[in-house]
Write a structure and sequence with these properties.
Layout lengths: L5 E2 H7 L5 H9 L3 E3 L2 E3 L5 E2 L5 E3 L1 H8 L3 E6 L3 E2 L8 E2 L28 E2 L8 E7 L2 H8 L7 E8 L4 H8 L3 E2 L2 E2 L4 E6 L2 E6 L6 H8 L3 E10 L2 E2 L8 E3 L7
Parallel strand pairs: 7-8, 10-16
Antiparallel strand pairs: 1-4, 2-3, 2-5, 6-10, 6-18, 9-10, 11-15, 11-16, 12-13, 14-15, 16-17
Length: 245
């Protein structure tokens, strides 16, 4: 067999059919066919040009894999609870759902179980946080080759030179590696707009420190084509069927 064979679950993830974890689940349940033949053994390897088919049961499960958009408040952590701070996922309740949600999705308590953040937002930052059960969306937002940009409004203190602004746009390094080009511009006398194509830990705060600025407020307002809009702090809504990152 060709030396280019791949694990079926990896190939399914590469094609954007689902995440690797979901692929293993579907394979174990007999919900995947390769070139017309059902595959049920985990770790099965296939040729890269094979035809992969998800059975209707897998498609139904994917359709129930909701994604929610939360305006995360400060003092909530994006993922698991830590150091006494609460996880943002605890806000995904009927009580905190945005009254203006126009997705048409009926709320169920089950929707909150298994939601995972697709990307981080620091404990001292607020704004748009995506939590999802859909491996396709998680891969799109946080995958190694993700091209989804993210926009932030950042209030700062300090003086920024023309050269400093140029460096924020391109030329800085973090952890020994050059950062991708960003789009940074003044919004008003104390607020900058950052558009990033990557998401290193505390990246904006560290970038600002390197050019003599102190961040005093940071809010994420957009991920790809999806806007925070008028979603109130601490409220959430479903990602609608016609919304795409």
């Amino acid at each position: 067999m060709s030396k280019d064979i791949l694990r079926l679950s990896k190939l399914m993830s590469q094609r954007g059919l689902c995440s690797r974890r979901e692929a293993d689940t579907y394979i174990a349940r007999g919900w995947v066919k390769v070139d017309g033949v059902a595959v049920t053994e985990l770790g099965t390897k296939v040729l890269p040009d094979c035809r992969i088919e998800l059975l209707q049961a897998a498609q139904r499960e994917q359709n129930q894999s909701v994604t929610v958009l939360l305006n995360k408040p400060i003092a909530y952590v994006s993922a698991q609870a830590e150091n006494g701070y609460k996880p943002a996922s605890m806000l995904i309740t009927a009580e905190h759902r945005y009254a203006g949600d126009e997705s048409g999705i009926a709320y169920s308590n089950e929707h909150a179980y298994g939601l995972a953040p697709a990307g981080r937002l620091d404990i001292d930052s607020s704004g748009l946080l995506v939590l999802t059960k859909d491996g396709r969306i998680a891969k799109q937002l946080i995958g190694e080759h993700s091209e989804i940009d993210k926009e932030y409004l950042v209030r700062v203190e300090g003086t920024l030179s023309a050269q400093g602004l140029k460096l924020l746009n391109h030329g800085l390094k973090l952890d020994g590696a050059a950062l991708r080009p960003a789009q940074v511009a003044w919004q008003n006398e104390d607020q900058l707009s950052f558009i990033l194509h990557e998401g290193k830990k505390r990246q904006i705060r560290r970038m600002c420190e390197m050019v003599g600025l102190k961040v005093v407020g940071l809010k994420r307002v957009r991920i790809g084509k999806v806007l925070l809009g008028n979603l109130p702090v601490g409220k959430w809504r479903y990602l609608a069927a016609d919304e795409h990152f």
